[in-house]
Structures are given as structure tokens and as C-alpha cells.
Write the C-alpha cells for this entry.
Amino acid sequence: MSRCIRRSLVALTLLTTMLWASFSVQAQEEAPKTPIPAPAEPNAIPLNTGGVPGQTAEESWYEQWGDPFVRNVSRATLTPFLPDPAQATGAAVIVAPGGAFRVLSMGNEGWEVAEALQEQGIAAFVLKYRLLPTAPDWEEFAKGNPLTAPTPASAQGVQLSPIAMALEDATAAFRLVRSRAKEWNIDPNRVGMMGFSAGAGATMAATLQSKENKPAFIAPIYGSLRAVDVPPDAPPMFVVLAADDPLFANDDYGLITSWKKAGRPVEFHLYQNGGHGFGLGNPGKTSTGWFTQFMLWLDVNGMLGK
């Protein structure tokens, strides 16, 4: 294992630990969680990356803050959102929702983002990656903060690496998208990845820990800005963070500096407000403008030309 990959693995492992610990400060602010039926996902394509060792609970869905979340994901899938072929730019984005590797914010950071990309002529693919287990019992899960809950007894003694699982799932997603690029009107050389919070960590793992994926561009959105070793062929990177983010806004901007020192293209937007988990944005917050800037950035970097 190279020094670059080793250092990246350490940084990303620290990220997962910090995510679980940091979310505990928000426990008192949590909105009620309401179980909902699993939504229809007729276009979800199984990635066949295996299950989650020790996982006994079934995948289940709930609503919080008006958004759908899923937990106990043990089978990864990829859901395409394809633009009208007449409007297709040839670009594609794999979208990884966040949730501290315990849950996935499928609406706010998945489907809504994919639909926004689709409207701009970009093929989007929502990655439902495998997660660490949460309590099988709904009442036990609902009464606490799932992001800081202990691993259920069913998984005790089983070594689980959420980064490793997310990396496997992301790699399978890149393979699938490129293998069907012609069918989906995609340029295989313009496939990028975007991730939110923990999904940003998955995006960085897919970029720094794999020689196969080679994303054409990446967009870690409100993720960790810890410094990493940057390979000489690192892709252009678009980064978004709110200055009032309770998780990552009090750190330095090592990730940005790492990319700059490596001489690789990077754009960084530090918005005045928005907090954490704002998805495409919330009314009255400056961070709502990030998606428009992202589209401009893609265009300037030659990702939208046919």
C-alpha cells in the first residue's frame, strides 16, 4: 500500500469517527422520526457487492425533517436519473448521500440532487451504499440518535469498515455507469462523483484509494477538509462548506491546500450560512447558491460540451 493511500485511509477513518462523535451535539435538536413504507425504487440496479457481515435487521425507511431516510442498507444499488437524450450533455455524476455511514438522506442529498442534475442534461446516479447496522427494533432506534448509537449486538465481534464498503460500492457504480455509457448517452471520460457529508468521505475514498475509478471531477459537499496526499492525476475538485457548519467549519482548509500544492484544479466555496446537511439549499441561506456555481464550474472545465 502506497504512502498516499495509507495517509488517505487514516484521514478517512478519522472522518468516520469524528462524524459519529460530532453528531451527538445535535441529538437534542433532532426532529421526531416517523417510520414510512419503503418507497418504490423500480429503476434501482443491484450492484452485487455483497452484504454487511453480522447484519440481521432488514432495511427500513423513516421520515425526519420532512425528508425520507433509509437505514440498515445491506445491499447496494444505483438508481439512474437520465436526461432526455436530446438534452444530454454527455456528463454523468454518481451521487452519494450522507448520514454518518449509519443512515442515508435519500431525498435531500440523493433524489432531489439527481433530479436537479437531470434537468441540466446531466445523467445522475444515486448510490445507495451499504451502512453500519443500527438497532433492529424501531422503538430503540427512534428514541436515540442513530448516528451515535452503539453497534447492535448482532454485529458485535464483526469487523466492519464503512469506508471499505462504500469504496467497493462506489467502484461497482463507476464500472456499471461506464459499461452502459453508450446506452445512457454518457461520455465515459466525463463521469464524476458528488457526495454529501459522509458521502463526501465516500467520494474522497473513491478518488484517493482506487486506481480504477479515476473520476473526471469530484464534488465533496460539506465534508471533512482534512489534508490528504494528492496524486499527480487528481481530478478537478469543487468543494462547498458553510461557515456555520457545526462539524467541519472549525477546522483549517487542509484539503484545499493539499489540492493547490499538488497543482490540481480546485474551487472552494465557503458560504456565510447554511449549517450542515442543507442539500441543494434552504431559503434565506447564502449556501443555496452553490448548485448554480457548480454548473458554471462544470461548464468552464469542459464537462458539459457534447
Remarks:
- The helical segments are 3-22, 107-119, 138-142, 162-179, 198-208, 254-261, 290-300.
- The radius of gyration is 18 Å.
